[in-house]
Amino acid sequence: MATAIKNKNHTLVSITTLSDNSLQKLADYSLFCYSPAKFLKGYNITDKAPLLVTLNSLFEKYQQYV
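Above: the chain sequence. Below: its structure as tokens.
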């Protein structure tokens, strides 16, 4: 999907973990969130709060822009 976005000359923003990864390499802008992986009885219970804070901040800036 990211490659298709780039092929259409759209701006690509990635939000990934703090690592060198293929999505981050394709992106025009890279944002990083850290939350250590946590599992309980085989279920992924990793805290999503860092991602939600980042998305909320982006949305607030977007609202100021429009």
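Strands lie at 13-16, 29-32, 39-40, 43-44.
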